[in-house]
Amino acid sequence: MRLWDVSSLASPHLSGSPLTARLSGAISVAFAPDDRTFASGSSDHQVLLWTTG
To answer: What is the pTM of this model?
Structure first.
């Protein structure tokens, strides 16, 4: 999964390295209000929590 920084919609860019985990493809992503934590859900019923730099 790749994380994009879209804080400037005029020039979005990749943020950091690709995120890797044992997922069968993320189908949903939700960000916490702190803009540093997010959850990803996959078709194999896994939910992973992530923290960005």
So the answer is: 0.57
